[in-house]
Amino acid sequence: MDSAREMIEALNRRLIEGVVRPLGLDSAIGTEELVKSLAAALAQDAGRLAELQNRHYRKRLELWAAYALNRPEAPAQPVIAPDPSDRRFRAPEWRAQPWFDFTTQSYLLTAEWLREVAGAARLEPHAKKKLEFFTRQYIDAMSPANFPWSNPEALKLAAETDGESVNRGLQNLAADLEKGMISMTDDSAFEVGRNLAVTPGAVVYENDFMQLIQYRPATEKVFERPLVMVPPCINKYYILDLQPENSFVRYAVERGHTVFMVSWRNVPAAMGRANWDDYLEHGVIRALAVAREVCGAGQANALGFCVGGTLLGAALAVLRAKGDEHVASLTLLATMLDFSDTGELSVFVDEAYVSQRERDFREGGLLHGRELALTFASLRANDLIWQYVVNNYLKGGTPDPFDLLYWNADSTNLPGAMYVYYVRNTYLENNLRLPGKLTMCGVPVDLGRVDMPAYVLATREDHIVPWRTAFASTRLLGGRIEFVLSASGHIAGVINPASKNRRNFWLNADLAQEPDRWLAASTSRPGSWWKHWGDWLAAFGGRDVPARSQLGNAQYPEIEPAPGRYVKEKCGSVGGG
Known about the structure:
The protein is α/β, with parallel strands linked by helices. It contains 20 helices and 17 strands. The protein has 2 domains: 2-187, no CATH class; 201-366 and 422-567, Alpha/Beta hydrolase fold, catalytic domain (Rossmann fold). It is 42% helix and 12% strand. It has an 11-stranded mixed sheet, with helices on both faces. A two-stranded antiparallel ribbon has the order 3-16. α10 (276-295) crosses α16 and α12 packs antiparallel against α16 (416-428). It is globular, with a radius of gyration of 26 Å. Mean pLDDT is 90; it is low at 25-30 and 573-577.
């Protein structure tokens, strides 16, 4: 028993040192900022604060009285109960003993009070959003479910296994600290090139920024014009080529498209001065040119996902400014071009943050992929951080295999110069949407001149690219636009294979309306949007031509089989969890 107690104490210490502190939950970005903002805001409305305090104290007294008077057992009717959708306290152990039931209700009361106080604070909109975000982060982190001494499920398992579950949890925590991030899936279940990114193809071009993959045809006839896909540069490309049954690349190839994929490099420290224009010129624009040259086509079709879509939109604005009309159609998946409302990501970006990062990267340097991965995970901390803390460390379990989460953890480094240009001119100042405001690759850019037909897809529950913000692209682009809203979130709403016929999507040709009115008047279609997109894109594929038996050409011969070297390069550990 003493040995198990010592291991639990060790686990608790390492959790605080290795997980809680690196998340900023006991530092200036967390508790200190939360307290200062609350105090300053509530000083303006002492009456409202007193009302909230009195209500909270009454509920506290009611909870204490229920346990202090007459009966040791937990009250039949709780003072406060978890939300039915909250999975943290569903197990019967939380109610079986009065202490843990009391702890749960006490936590829920505190969480309710903090949310109400943050909601009552009179602050300007950005400060208010920031306060509410960090309040939620603090509430999520301080759950009794997250710590071994206050989680009855973990304690019960430790007793049943004579401490072995705690020992496994310590080993899991040590391994995750070594690799620099929390394990969300069974990494041993997947390997790029073995069961992920296995659509047949070859790298036919490479430079310091990207490899360009051409996929082998799956049909006897193919469309004349190639399809060039530009994935996000903050993750690996294979989100679009996961396992065969949910590979968007494979679907497009089977529809008769000659698909080319940009595989962004996980840049080394020596490339820390590379900038936004480099990604346009040596990445997107070069990929479009090579694909056309390989296929001998006058035009190509182009597709961008997330940040890849932003890069693609900017690159097409550069090409249009130079009189280049070699792109026949544009597809944007969960992409922002107008950054008026960036959702909760905006809490991380203000003038102070951007100025500091500009100073950090003045002499070059890398933004490590782990930093961005942690930022995105914090937007859904209970789902993407704390449930794995409980399962992996408190209970000593191993997460289930899940290809999307394996990809999610496989992040890439970015050049610091490129990153700070991006966040200042998009998230902070929203300059990309303003005609002529920015000069890229030597020319002023105007998204209104991007006038080829466009398919713009948003996802309704997207926490990274809010769908109403994606809808704003319809006001910026100059061509005929098909706007489609898919069910689900940023990834699941995009990677929704047609063969599974799941979820639904909404269509409405009237784009003159505001987003909510557009949705109210839209028509819901069952299943995946993939077939609808495939039918749309077929109109811009050009003539049917015989499929090529060889990939590349004399100028661009095969360099190596897909998925290539770049996608297999890993981020180094940046330390600190």
